[in-house]
Amino acid sequence: MTRTAPAAPGATRTALLHARVFDGHELTEPRTVVIDGGIVSPHTDTSDARLVDATGMTLLPGLIDAHVHLHGADTLAALAAHGVTTALDMATWPPPLLAALRRVPHLTDIRSAGTPAIGDGGPHARIPGMSEDAVVRGPRQAGEFVAAQVSAGADYIKIVAEAPGEGGPDQVTLNALVAAARTHGRKTVAHAASAGAYLMAFEAGVDCVTHIPLDRPLDAGEAARMAALGQVCIPTLTMMEGTAAAMGVAPAYGNAVRSVAALRDAGVPILAGTDANAQPGAPFQVEHGASIHHELELLVAAGLTPAEALRSATVLPARHFGLDDRGSVAPGLRADLILVDGNPLADIGATRALRHIWCAGMEQVPAV
Q1: Rounded to whole angstroms, how far apart are CA atoms 189 and 23?
Q2: What are the tens digits of pLDDT across the range 155-167?
Q3: What residue spans of the chain are helical by DSSP H?
Q4: Are strands 157-160 and 337-341 parallel, antiparallel or unpaired?
Q5: Between helices 195-204 and 220-228, what is the axis angle to 10°?
């Protein structure tokens, strides 16, 4: 049980006492951390603060799910209740829905690609309600598509790559989309769920590839190429595990696991993302919030250490998506924090034992 002292009259700060801190890099000895408004305070004076005894607990940066799909304010509430304080949305439309979600206060903070770029013959074109504006039929449309997304507030550009002949944008169009995004100062994230799509993402020079092949594992040479290109991977093992089972090819999930191990060994940065969604027509619906804890467990099972898995959901997505004000526990950063029972560096499953959650200093009610 967390032991929490009553707040002093007029207190605007919270002091966490005797907390071991995983600061995004390493685990510290027990110490005091003070939340002052929406930031981690540089001071440890507790005289006017609400006191929380965190003995035996671990304080972590709030988790960042690097691949979600948003559907409503309830999506944000579910994420926040499971310790996901920042979510990187990889496709939400129409633009008014996304704009409304950006205005929801005091819950999970979001970044978004808005509408994704897809081909006219791939699986994404058959998703119910998919925007016609998503279809990019050739390189001449690439600049127009990217400009429209940037105008609508996209933080990065999402491109759906399919293996040659499977209905996605062709290689020339993928290349043009990446070039247009760079002209506007935006990173690119490519959906790639097969080895053929991965090769196209390599050739296009995208910044980040999300998903991991089920059809065959990536070999050491391909992993080395990805590392040399400076690309980042969001493997979404939760989605790949669920998709393989739903398709009746559960053993194919082993290809995803072997690929993640190869990428780790090659030094490719791996980010934790779940592909949480409630989208009709999706190959598998992943629960928002709760799934990030399963994703961390799957990453550890694939060969990451618990510390590496925690970095994949904190400091690394913050670094690679330019979120300089979060991802670590340090003075002056956003007070996006979670306090858990136990030590997740010894047992990654301890991230599920949520006792307190703060989104920019606003305390949330943990999911039961």
Answers
A1: 27
A2: 999 999 999 999 9
A3: 73-81, 95-102, 139-151, 171-183, 195-204, 220-228, 237-246, 253-266, 291-301, 306-312, 315-320
A4: unpaired
A5: 30
Contact status, residue 196 vs residue 189, Cβ threshold 8 Å: no
Extract the tokens encoding 126.
């058959």
For 64-102, b/e burial (b = at least 16 CB within 10 A) is: bbbbbbbbeeebbbbbbbbbbbbbbbbbbbebeebeebe
Token pair belonging to 282: 């999706």
337-341 and 354-359 beta bridge pairing: antiparallel
Write the DSSP symbol of residue 355: E
Q: Name, in order, each residue with C-beta under 8 angstroms of 115's C-beta and a sequence gap of 6 or more.
A: 91, 93, 94, 95, 131, 133, 134, 149, 152, 154
pLDDT digits (tens, 9 = 90+) for 141-155: 999 999 999 999 999
In angstroms, the CA 195 to CA 226 distance is: 13
CA distance 205 to 178: 7
